[in-house]
Amino acid sequence: MTESGKPILYSYFRSSCSWRVRIALALKSIDYETVPVNLIKDGGQQFSKEFQALNPMKQVPALKIDGITIGQSLAIIEYLEETRPTPRLLPQDPKKRVLVRMISDLIAGGIQPLQNLSILKQVGQENQLAWAQKAISSGFNALEQILQSTAGKYCVGDEVSMADLCLVPQVANAERYKVDLTPYPTISRINKALLALEAFQVSHPCRQPDTPPELRA
Fold it and tell me: Mean pLDDT in the chain?
């Protein structure tokens, strides 16, 4: 926490994991300060000693709040849900709640890591686009099928949940890597509805303190 008592979010504007947390903070009207962490510098990942001490995994996001530091976006969101439960991001009904967690884990564990910058750097510049497209398309094939049975207005029913916080940043990654979204009408419909909400707009990568001028909107 800062001297003002605000939580501190260590974030990178383009990080989809950071975006998930920014959406949660916005939805729950939690005022916070952002410390940008530059993930791309001199062709590699370089971090300050302070941040390496803060998060040994050297990944964003990390959130300083209530006297503790939390890494991993879903763990952060779950903590915010437990300590600041309004509005609810996990349904009260156990069956709906497990669907939210399942979809969140599918994206956060089964899609996003496979197309993350750290992985793409290992496959060679000439293979990066095809690799990312395959990883995202494979995951979206499964996700589209699941959402057809779980979705209402949003991923699980008609209330915004943690699953939606994972979906929107992943669709942005898909667009960035030029994935054809035509085969995924349910994903596209939910994404469009979510992007109309203020919390998803203010947390958008184009509106962050470290967003480059040419990418601002």
Answer: 93
- Beta bridge pairs of residue 129: none
d(CA 18, CA 63): 10
For domain 9-87, give the CATH number: 3.40.30.10
Q: Is the pLDDT of residue 4 over 70?
A: no
| Per-residue pLDDT, 57 | 82
Which phi and psi (to 5°) does residue 107 adopt?
-75, -50
Beta strand spans in the chain (E) = 8-11, 33-36, 62-65, 68-71
The 8-class DSSP code of residue 5 comes to S
Tell me the fold of 94-200: Glutathione S-transferase Yfyf (Class Pi); Chain A, domain 2 (1.20.1050)
Give pLDDT tens digits for 44-89: 455 677 787 888 888 899 999 999 999 999 999 999 999 999 999 9
- Asked whether 192 and 171 are in contact (CB, 8 A), the reply is no
Interatomic CA distance for residues 100 and 159, integer angstroms:
11
Structure tokens belonging to residue 47: 């971090």
Mean pLDDT is lowest, of 45-54, 88-97, 183-192, for 45-54
Rounded to 5, what percent of the chain is helix, strand, coil? 55, 10, 35
Coil, strand or helix at 151: strand
CA 80 to chain CA centroid, Å, is 15
What is the location of CATH 3.40.30.10 in the chain? 9-87
Q: What are the start and end residues of each CATH 1.20.1050.10 domain in the chain?
A: 94-200
